[in-house]
Write a structure and sequence with these properties.
The protein is mainly alpha-helical. The protein is about 75% helix and about 0% strand. The radius of gyration is 23 Å and the shape is globular.
């Protein structure tokens, strides 16, 4: 009887947590179909104003271009970040020296520095390189992600050294071993890192805010921020439509790669 009561409480708690997690997403979808006044009044049901909100958004902003900007920045950042951070992590783990451990420890300490403190130095660096209002100025600082170096190194700890040694016996160099042996067996870890890197780049706001200065270079985060301050009377319906559109790519990516994401987070190998 006691076990049944505990199970009931456990599942009740899990259901409540699931509801709390899903409700904001539902409210976003419902808000995209209602007028601004209906949203302000707290209406939670699906409305009939979706096409009007979408039309107003498309008339005021070049959504396809802005979506393309976000996708371009996020995809390039994710691909380059996976290559650079995984190779760095592989070197730290499989070619360990005293100096490399000191460097790795310093890198981990850098994770404690708030990104806001780096904004002014990054702006000056990009201005010196004449990259202001260029997407490259957002991509370059995001490639070397310290968390991903840490994540990949933890994943490489479970990679068998015997496979690396066998590759060396066959005459393969370090780069060939990495791309021909290590990469194919660590697909789950790469999938998890790809989701994290893509979402991190897609949701980036502070750096694009100070770097991008014209609307044709804007990303979705800047568009949503601009919608909230575009006029004295906020159009919540249009904002909700923009937020919904901005959420779709990351949602689709996660749904497609969720199994690999879970496997990667648990550190499993896939031959």
């Amino acid at each position: 009887m006691r076990s049944k009561a505990l199970s009931f409480l456990k599942y009740t708690f899990l259901i409540l947590c699931s509801f709390v997690s899903i409700f904001p997403f539902y409210w976003m979808i419902a808000g995209a179909t209602n007028t601004s006044n209906q949203i302000a009044e707290g209406k939670l049901s699906i409305g009939s104003n979706l096409l009007k909100n979408l039309s107003d958004l498309l008339e005021g902003y070049n959504i396809p271009l802005i979506m393309w900007n976000s996708l371009k920045v996020s995809l390039i950042t994710a691909v380059l970040s996976l290559i650079v951070t995984s190779m760095a992590a592989f070197g730290f783990e499989k070619f360990t020296t005293r100096k490399s451990e000191i460097i790795y420890s310093i890198l981990l300490l850098f994770m404690m520095i708030p990104f806001a403190t780096l904004v002014i130095p990054l702006f000056k660096m990009m201005a010196g390189l004449d990259l202001i209002n260029q997407h490259l100025a957002i991509i370059l600082p995001s490639i070397s992600n310290i968390f991903l170096i840490f994540f990949f190194r933890q994943s490489f700890k479970s990679f068998p050294d015997d496979i690396i040694d066998s590759g060396r016996v066959e005459g393969a160099g370090n780069y060939k071993i990495f791309f021909k042996l290590v990469f194919p067996m660590m697909k789950s870890a790469y999938a998890a890192a790809a989701i994290y890197s893509f979402m991190n780049a897609w949701n980036s706001y502070l750096l694009p805010l100070i770097i991008l200065q014209t609307e044709d270079k804007y990303t979705m985060t800047l568009l949503i921020s601009g919608l909230s301050s575009a006029s004295y009377v906020a159009n919540y319906g249009v904002q909700m439509v923009a937020i919904t559109i901005a959420t779709m790519p990351t949602l689709v990516l996660f749904l497609i790669m969720q199994k690999s994401f879970v496997a990667g987070m648990t550190g499993s190998l896939k031959a």
